[in-house]
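If you are new to this repository, start here. Below is one unmodified record pulled from the training split, so you can see the exact layout before writing a loader.
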Amino acid sequence: MLYVLDLLPFLLQAASTVTPKDLFTALDRYAPFTDLAALKAASAKPLRKCIRVNTLKTSVETVKQWAVDHGWKLDPVPWCTEGFFIDREDRSEALGKDLLHLLGHVYLQEASSMLPPVLLDPQPGETVLDMCAAPGSKTTQIAAMMQGRGVIIANEVQEKRMWTLNTACQRSGVTNVILTKKVGQWFGKQMTEQFDRVLCDAPCTAQGTVRKDSDALNFCGPENIAKMARLQTEVLEAAIHAAKVGGTIVYSTCTLTPEENEGVVLNMLNKFCDQLEIVEPQIRNEKLVMRTAIGDSQKVQEYLKSTGYFSLLNSPSPLLRIWPQTYDSEGFFCAVLLKKAPTRPREHVPSVPRREERFAKNMEMEIRKRISDIYGTDFVHEGEMLVHRGDLVLLTTELAASLHFPIVDYGMGIPYAKGLKDGRFRITDELATARGIEATKSVLTISESDLQELLEGQNIECRDDAHGDMMLHWNGLAIGRGLAKEGYLKNRLSRWIVQLKGS
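And here is the target side for that same chain:
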């Protein structure tokens, strides 16, 4: 067996720490593989802003029209039909404060990070594991590709990052997600052969992110690289065990080191030479784009092959490496694996109760009827259902609710409504911004000036016949809720949106 640490010392010559003066000397080790001057020049440039259209809430055409109306210039990300590089005429307000982003219609996501979900190619109705899911960009992208159907297990081990992941899923309107808080290695034994597809976007030294975080090169010494490579090998092996036979595993990192990229993948191919097959990355209608990047990757592989690292491989494999200068993006690495045979025995692991409980059928239908009486719809789509955690009602999918699971989940679905003391139910901000445009009753269409006042946290005047809970529409968007009484509307927009827009 050949291990990551068997690589020649050449691959470990980066300094343990790097001072600002010689920041990019850590990149010198890549001279045999790529144009070093181009790599350093690209790494010194600011990173281009990117957005991904969240098709769970809107369409690419709608966002393109918004861009025209707001003076945005959009250039397509080659491998993601929903991704765009963005440049704006007016930069007086941060892109993160734009209303489309606050409402979850677009997601701020770096172009290269859109690639792993595209290579994973999740399909509606499948069971998918996102093993290292925070901050949630790839999870929400996977959910949109699945059209909200099937189930995604989004896993994260750190509490702070779990909060970020949960917020991203809720703001994006992801109903078919179950959140778990475990180390990635846990899934290899406890959920062997349970997933149609597994994304292993592994923790790494993050050298590819230097354009937005120059500190990324300060911690790329041999000890840290070796430590990360050992961890990555463990989580990738667990991902392989967790995939079903015939399932797809995508391994990705945002670093440049061969030890964390090609080395980790080749380790697994050596260990499971009869059970795994590496496949060429496929991009819909964009094969030429990927072949250019594959050519870059082969330079790295040819060097590794000369060290004996390819001992069980007859030819260079189609591993995908994107240098920062290749597409003016972050550096990234991806590999697509197909599981052909079992890699460990399956063990019976009993399921445990969820934090969320099912309603009695008549109670669920009663809640849905009450919401429908107010808004003309219950906002529940085919294949979805309501569950509850205390007085909080959640919207999830039937498949997610019925999936047998050996641990208590961290959360699932999106908040749907809150039970009030008088027995009524009031819909949540998350539901209002995700599905509110479907309302046909209790709708208040507001003006531009009304919108600005609401975003500043103020109450507004409204028509006299408006009464009770109202859904607020503006310019074809559901922006939230309000409470109407005697010609006035009490502002019930998300406090988070009001605070960001008002700051």
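Two things worth knowing about this chain: The mean pLDDT is 89. The CA atoms of residues 79 and 115 lie 7 Å apart.
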